[in-house]
Amino acid sequence: MEDTAILELYWARNEQAIAETQKSYGKYCYSIAYHILHDREDTEECLNDTWMRAWNAIPPKKPNRLELFLGTITRNLSFDRWKGRHAQKRGNGTMDMALDELAECIPAAHDTESIVEAAELERSINAFLHTLSEQECNVFLRRYWFVEEYAQIAERYGMNLNTVKTSLFRTRKKLQKYLEQQGIVL
């Protein structure tokens, strides 16, 4: 079913919208949540929460890209669940490493001013991503949006594991330089 038809179901408050959303985007959202949580039960709960959040948000929101809207909800819920599970102890898993890698080039939000500036940071990062080659962008997003492991990225793009790591290192350095040129203090 087309996104416009699914959105019409939401606006009509027809519960079939959830079934059609699951049918169209269930695998996509499952993939996002599972790469973050690595637990089927938690992933299923996140998906159920995603469908509920979408139901409660549409209307009044009318997303331009339903896939991105649902992916963002799923990702945020998954991170929240992951943080809740790891609040007492921090492991050495993929999530920790991915967040630590990005911490080198993304400023931390410690105060209200930083929170307000988050929208500008998001715009700058999106603009930066458009400066990358398609493969660089895909590798970067696979690591830091979908939280895939290096080996998965290497396999997906037919790359050597060290090439993936080097590419991500260089892209992080480019991002850091780009943000500094944009006047974003690191």
Stretches where pLDDT is under 50 for at least 5 consecutive residues are none
The CATH fourth-level homologous superfamily of the largest domain: Winged helix-like DNA-binding domain superfamily/Winged helix DNA-binding domain
- CATH architecture grouping of the largest domain: Orthogonal Bundle
Specify Rg, calculated over alpha carbons: 18 Å
CATH domain fold name of the largest domain = Arc Repressor Mutant, subunit A
Helix content: over 70%
Work out the count of structural domains.
2
- Gap between N and C termini: 44 Å
Organism: Simiaoa sunii
InterPro entries: RNA_pol_sigma-70-like, RNA_pol_sigma-70_dom, RNA_pol_sigma70_r2, RNA_pol_sigma70_r4_t2, RNA_pol_sigma_r2, RNA_pol_sigma_r3/r4-like, WH-like_DNA-bd_sf
Domain RNA polymerase sigma factor 70 region 4 type: 125-175
Family: Belongs to the sigma-70 factor family. ECF subfamily.
Describe the structure.
The chain is mostly helical and 186 residues long. The protein folds into 2 domains: 3-85, RNA polymerase sigma factor, region 2, helix turn helix motif (Rna Polymerase Sigma Factor, Chain: A), CATH 1.10.1740.10; 94-181, Orthogonal Bundle (Arc Repressor Mutant, subunit A). The chain has helices at 3-11, 16-37, 40-57, 66-85, 94-103, 112-129, 134-144, 150-157, 161-181. Helix 3 packs across helix 4. It is globular, with a radius of gyration of 18 Å. The model has no long low-confidence stretch (mean pLDDT 85).
